[in-house]
Amino acid sequence: MAKNRNEIAEDRKWDLTSVFDTDQAWDDEYEVVSKELDDAKKLAGHLTDSAASLLATTKIELAIAQRVEKLYVYASMKNDQDTTVAKYQELQAKATALYAKFGETFAFYEPEFMTLTDGELAEFKVEVPELNDFNHFFEKLLSKKAHVLSSAEEALLAGAGEIFGASAETFEILDNADIIFPTIKDSEGNDVQLTHGNYISFMENKVREIRKNAYQALYSIYNQFQNTYAKTLGSNVKVHNFQAKTRKYSSARAAALAENHIPESVFDTLVESVNKHLPLLHRYVNLRKEILGINDLKMYDMYAPLSDLDYKFTYDQAVDKTIDTLKIFGPDYLERVKRSFDERWIDVEENKGKRSGAYSGGSYDTDAFMLLNWHDTLDNLFTLVHEMGHSMHSTFTRENQPYVYGDYSIFLAEIASTTNENILTETLLEEIKDDKTRFAILNHYLDGFRGTVFRQTQFAEFEHDIHEADAAGTVLTSEFLNNLYADLNEKYYGISKEENPEIQYEWARIPHFYYNYYVFQYSTGFAAASYLAEKIVHGTEQDKENYLNYLKAGNSDYPLDVIARAGVDMTNSVYLDEAFKVFETRLTELEELVAKGAHLNG
Ligand SMILES: [Zn+2]
């Protein structure tokens, strides 16, 4: 049973007084920023009047954004630490409204900026050289110019925003509110209502019959509602294709990737390379068969635990381990890691009403706070070094970049966190010699790789296929989606679709298919991290320095250019090949351990 928040030791709670000393200080700042937003309304219509006005308005917009962000993170972190406190629910609601007000106030900025010609902007910069501080920011805006429509057309599209979002919202409501999963038996024989939340713990149950029942119960519902799910997904794909076409992009994928200036070849290279390495996944599946002693392995056996080892870390041990692992990055990095512990950036323990899961956050003007819900497990140790990776990325970026570039894109975010996880894996494997513990660590790594690089690329392939099919005029019926998904799944896992009939409906329950070419970044990020971790552990001082330069670059350049400076060229397949080499080495060791009987009890 979780404690009340006031029963948790102070040193296990984050210290948000460095953000705002008191709630009163937050309220005061809120009033000031609100007033400044009112004043900023008069800036509309004058952005491009002169070079001076462009500079002044840009600076005002960024300065207010910076303050809104700080107000927002304080409110949301206070709310997350105990969501039952009405005071902080209210603060969070006020902060959200302030964000919306900010968006409305500065809605004029982009369209007015787009009216500048390249020549006019160049002249402005000669007149007021300080505008050069914003070169990359302006360049990114201008790169969208060819895809901005007339103001009447833009108004029409903006007005239809809610309608475009309707099928994704319908999916969300259907899947989270209306769908009721059957009641099944848990390991003690009790009746339990199956939910999205407890499904994965059933998949991790050691008893095969329990896994099978949960799996069949879940998919019976997706089978029943497959036509509705096909309609929500199909309509959402139509929205992406329609918007891309309207904005004169060659495809939905080209439009989505243009946001981060990523060439489509990065996506194709990923899919090609993963396909080439599918025999490794088949080897992993065969090993799973052998360890579990199951000849006819089914999709519901894919998450069953392979290791019985109870490998425990207390939080204090995990802190020491984190410091020990991350010292490889050198004194600058380590000093900041230690500071995060000493200055209480981390909210460690679970308490009643606390938001579940883990994250790293904060804003440009605050420390990079972390939220955890600590349990003494190997998984939680990995979570701590993962979030620490995000927090160090944020810290280095915020220290080294002005606010305008003081954040980083999603495409690069997961690289900093998973590099740390990969380094932890390397460190543990270097020091631990006993077979059973190595087995547990290798298993953790291989499952992570399988779930990220292979599974998310499978999703990416499916997502791309259905966008192309719709663009070519194919109707995305449930039958079409089921067949496509079943074939892909058979190709990936090497196990027959006829013997796993339920998996054909899996597409129906994946919320990420509504995110518009999002999932492939998990795979590219993990593979890049795997490659970088190898370079950091076995490479030169220069490799480490290049890596730190990536952490410091923020949004000062396009993501591919930033990561290229860390030594990863994501336009070719070398980084993927290297990541698969690591996977293969570890898979081979696990196979050898299994041959020695390391997975057996006793
Ligand atoms: Zn993360």
UniProtKB/TrEMBL annotation:
GO biological process, one term: proteolysis
UniProt KW Glycoprotein keyword: no
Sample GO molecular function, one term: metal ion binding
InterPro entries assigned to the protein according to its UniProt record, in alphabetical order: OligopepF_N_dom, OligoPept_F_C, Pept_M3A_M3B, Pept_M3A_M3B_dom, Peptidase_M3B
Gene3D superfamilies noted in UniProt: Oligoendopeptidase f, C-terminal domain, Oligopeptidase f, N-terminal domain, putative peptidase helix hairpin domain like
Domain Peptidase M3A/M3B catalytic: 202-581
Keywords: Hydrolase, Metal-binding, Metalloprotease, Protease, Zinc
Domain annotation Oligopeptidase F N-terminal: ranges: 112-181
Names of required cofactors: Zn(2+)
Enzyme Commission number(s) from the entry: 3.4.24.-
Domain of life the protein comes from: Bacteria
Pfam families in UniProt: Peptidase_M3 (PF01432), Peptidase_M3_N (PF08439)
Cofactor note: Binds 1 zinc ion.
Entries under PANTHER family matching the protein: PROTEASE M3 THIMET OLIGOPEPTIDASE-RELATED (PTHR11804), SACCHAROLYSIN (PTHR11804:SF84)
Function: Has oligopeptidase activity and degrades a variety of small bioactive peptides.
NCBIfam families (alphabetical): pepF
Family label: Belongs to the peptidase M3B family.
This protein's name: Oligopeptidase F
Native species: Floricoccus tropicus
